[in-house]
Automatic annotation (TrEMBL):
Name of this chain's protein: Methyltransferase type 11 domain-containing protein
Pfam assignment, any one: Methyltransf_23
InterPro entries, per the entry: SAM-dependent_MTases_sf
């Protein structure tokens, strides 16, 4: 049976409205929304090809530093310190005898952070430079075939993770069934991906953020509800959650100045209000404690209303 290409993948409706006609860097591309189930997607739905990720085109435009292209080593060094909260989230299910697969593992920073915590770590990555970096520097196996087609001697796995990957996938059901096929019965799936209910879009409605937000090569933009529906249909049990990792000062920067902080680190680290040399250490500490406390309350508030910049999902394959 050939599926009607224009039907919504979740609810089957062909009724959609145009939200925007331009995405990041002024690229002309329609952002559409299904009128029935609210799923948001970019046109064309085919997305970009695997070759796009294999070449350096993706990293040239979408690295941790917006001002320059980062090398695999720089990407690895930038993201490694920020894997801790992800591992903390997985803590309750981690076991020393586990086999873990990370799909779309980039330079392997998450799997590196898992070192010593599980028995077997395996990555899948299409970006050739990242694969080369892992093979040279890290101590786990990496495959460069899509999950739908790859044959892995190490499988099936107890836990499969896909961090900032699902939004790139033009055929989420094919992708999720590739994951299910490589999971043990009752195995765990953990996802992180952008949340289209992001507080900067839905509460503060920062125009510059919206211009920056939708970008090639993303295909789908999920909310808690559309992600929940997709995973249920794909045979996974669990509930989507959300998390806010960019800090309060990063959001103030967007709201007041209408632009991002150019470096991933500044936006994601503990916020610092006073760093200049003239104030005494006691004064700096007091002010910085205030902004850290505010940041923590802000993140709780954002999370309470499911407005965090990332969706999370920890669930299991139905038997
Ligand atoms: Zn729909």
């Amino acid at each position: 049976m050939t599926k009607n290409l224009s039907a919504c993948i979740i609810c089957g409706s062909e009724n959609r409205k145009v939200l925007r006609k331009k995405i990041r860097y002024g690229i002309r591309r329609k952002v559409l929304q299904c009128v029935r189930c609210s799923l948001i997607f970019l046109e064309p739905l085919a997305g970009v090809s695997a070759a796009y990720y294999r070449s350096n085109k993706y990293r040239a435009l979408h690295g941790p530093d917006l001002k320059k292209q980062s090398s695999p080593r720089e990407i690895f060094n930038t993201y490694l310190p920020f894997q801790k909260p992800i591992i903390q989230k997985l803590e309750p299910i981690l076991r020393p005898n586990m086999k873990v697969l990370d799909v779309g593992c980039s330079t392997g920073h998450f799997l590196e952070a898992l070192r010593g915590r599980v028995k077997t770590r395996v990555g899948i990555e299409l970006d050739e430079a990242a694969v080369k970096f892992i093979k040279r520097n890290l101590n786990f196996k990496v495959y460069s075939e899509p999950i739908e087609r790859v044959n892995m001697a190490e499988g099936p796995f107890d836990l499969i993770t896909a961090l900032q990957v699902l939004e790139h996938v033009p055929d989420p059901f094919g992708f999720l069934s590739g994951i299910a096929k490589n999971l043990k019965p009752n195995g765990y799936l953990y996802l992180e991906l952008p949340n289209v209910s992001d507080v900067l879009l839905t509460v503060f409605k920062v125009k510059e953020y919206e211009d920056f937000y939708y970008r090639e090569p993303h295909v789908y933009y999920y909310s808690k509800d559309t992600l929940g529906a997709l995973l249920k249909m794909a045979g996974f049990e669990g509930k989507p959650g959300n998390v806010q990792r960019y800090n309060f000062l990063n959001h103030l920067n967007w709201i007041l100045a209408g632009k991002p902080q150019s470096n991933f680190n500044v936006g994601n680290a503990q916020p610092v209000l006073v760093s200049a040399g003239s104030a005494s250490a006691a004064i700096k500490d007091d002010f910085n404690e205030f902004i850290r406390g505010t940041d923590s309350k802000y993140k709780q508030l954002v999370g309470k209303y499911n407005l965090g910049e990332n969706l999370t999902f920890l669930g299991r394959k139905k038997l």
